Amino acid sequence: MRVPPGLGNLEDVQRWALVVRRTDRARGRRWWLAVPAALVVAVAAAVVSTDPVGYGVAFWPFLSRSDRDDLRVMEMVTGAARAQGDPARVPPAVAADGVEVLETHLHPPNGAVWMRVRYPVHDGVRCREVMVLGDRVQVTSRRVDC
Q1: Dihedral sign for Cα atoms in the order 38, 40, 46, 51
Q2: Is residue 31 in some structural domain?
Q3: Which of 58, 60, 67, 104 has its CA 20 to 30 A from that of 52?
Q4: Digit-coded pLDDT (tens) for 20-44
Q5: Domain assignment of residue 73, given as a range
Q6: Which pLDDT score is estimated for 10?
């Protein structure tokens, strides 16, 4: 008598395993980081695009044709400040280059000068408040309404 090679009728039984699919938690965590980061970048880009020259990011994605004119004037003001040495002589030097100086305030203790300037750009006229700090010849500005 021959004995069958298997375990009787268990030979044909399939093995079923309980498989529980786990969610990929790392993907969910990435979304929690990526979405706020993208929103922060979008808000920062919107703020910077309002005055790219004043924020110091004068390059392609933020810079329009009028902003290029803005940058040219600010480079001229910086060059005049470095060439003159004394901030008190900067307003006449800037006015000689075709920029209209509307107001000037000198701050003698620290050698700084504050100016409000008006100049033509591609799409009209713009005004900026410019502060030239004496010792380090540091120039800062912000766009204002004319």
Answers
A1: negative
A2: yes
A3: 104
A4: 777 666 666 778 888 999 999 999 9
A5: 65-144
A6: 57
Are residue 128 and residue 138 in the same domain, yes or no? yes
- Structural domain count, the chain: 2
Nearest Cα neighbor of 119 from 128, 109, 129, 111 is: 128
Instruction: Tell me the CB-side half-sphere exposure of residue 135, using CA atoms within 13 A.
Output: 2
Beta bridge partners of 126: 119
pLDDT at site 122: 84
What pLDDT score does 137 carry? 72
84, 69: one domain: yes
Assess whether pLDDT exceeds 70 at residue 1: no
Same domain, 52 and 98: no
Q: Average pLDDT of 75-103?
A: 83
Across 45-49, average pLDDT:
89
Q: Are residues 34 and 71 in the same domain?
A: no
